[in-house]
Design the sequence.
């Protein structure tokens, strides 16, 4: 990987003469040509189809190298092939296809903290480079066409397999009023709750504990939400993650940790559709927003809180993690919160009691919204 792809900066005001000397659409088309070359080199494409929040997505792979790494988390949303999907994403790596990506047309100062590349974005084209995964993501809004590239499929990190193609899907869905948020969600078909808050607040423990209850699981780390006509949550990744030193708190999940041998350096990653397909739910109306917080007490309880508190627990972490998150995304999140009751979920040490508290709340709010 080119060293200048990995440099970060907080600069946001770059003189025009220092911007990449290439137009965003020209760069997109060059990379698209390389994908087609990779497809030819490897002997054709392999396609997979998914329905995400009511919209259809086709993934086109140049060869097999990236398929298992980028589709396992989406398996619960797979559908039969269709003729005219709403979005197509072309996916390739240089190593297995013997198709080299040329040096990037930008320098280190062009790469922003969330991955956006200054000078290679426009109203039509989004360009970002995910430095942790060393992945290039491109999206042409006009053609509903995305491109995802990595140099070597063997080096895709575990968190990318847990939430693949995140940037492209987030940006494209956002244009359709469907916002990806950094939040978990659990519930029943008649309604559920959104779990929001910063890392370490107990979101993952809360969501994953519900797999051993009568509640259904929609997500752990990322959810899709809409505010209109009524707040609704949609599943995108049927995965879960836990810190290595915390996996013993949910012992029933230890046998299904996918990366057990790497727990010293990675979070535990669970592909839940492989083991709990009957517990995965694809969507439900939202009835409340919960902000988990660890109390150290034995009992789990709920405390009513303000919309402002919920918004401040949801918006900043989403904006920080997802490139291109702007005013429209914040409006969707704010409108959703304003329509729902908001609570602190005061987490007790008896983890098995957490799902029951959530279930009782959902039942009590069955007529809300």
Sequence:
């Amino acid at each position: 990987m080119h060293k200048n792809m990995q440099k970060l900066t907080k600069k946001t005001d770059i003189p025009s003469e220092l911007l990449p000397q290439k137009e965003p659409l020209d760069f997109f088309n060059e990379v698209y040509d390389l994908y087609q070359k990779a497809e030819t080199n490897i002997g054709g494409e392999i396609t997979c189809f998914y329905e995400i929040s009511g919209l259809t997505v086709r993934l086109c792979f140049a060869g097999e190298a990236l398929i298992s790494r980028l589709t396992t988390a989406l398996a619960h949303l797979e559908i039969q092939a269709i003729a005219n999907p709403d979005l197509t994403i072309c996916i390739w790596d240089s190593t297995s296809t013997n198709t080299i990506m040329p040096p990037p047309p930008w320098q280190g100062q062009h790469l922003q903290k969330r991955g956006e590349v200054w000078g290679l974005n426009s109203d039509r084209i989004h360009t970002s480079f995910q430095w942790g995964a060393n992945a290039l993501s491109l999206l042409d809004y006009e053609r509903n066409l995305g491109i995802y590239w990595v140099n070597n499929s063997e080096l895709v990190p575990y968190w990318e397999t847990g939430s693949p193609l995140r940037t492209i899907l987030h940006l494209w869905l956002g244009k359709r009023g469907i916002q990806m948020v950094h939040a978990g969600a659990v519930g029943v078909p008649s309604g559920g709750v959104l779990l929001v808050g910063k890392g370490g607040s107990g979101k993952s423990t809360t969501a994953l504990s519900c797999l051993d209850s009568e509640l259904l699981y929609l997500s752990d780390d990322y959810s899709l939400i809409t505010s209109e006509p009524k707040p609704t949550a949609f599943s995108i990744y049927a995965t879960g993650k836990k810190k290595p030193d915390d996996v013993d708190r949910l012992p029933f999940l230890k046998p299904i940790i996918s990366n057990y041998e790497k727990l010293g350096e990675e979070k535990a990653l669970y592909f839940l559709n492989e083991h709990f397909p009957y517990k995965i739910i694809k969507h439900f109306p939202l009835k409340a927003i919960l902000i988990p917080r660890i109390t150290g007490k034995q009992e789990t309880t709920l405390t009513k809180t303000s919309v402002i508190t919920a918004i401040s627990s949801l918006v900043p972490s989403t904006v920080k993690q997802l490139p291109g998150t702007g005013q429209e995304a914040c409006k969707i999140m704010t409108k959703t919160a304003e329509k729902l009751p908001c609570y602190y979920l005061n987490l007790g040490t008896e983890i098995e009691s957490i799902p029951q508290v959530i279930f009782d709340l959902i039942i009590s709010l069955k007529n809300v919204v």
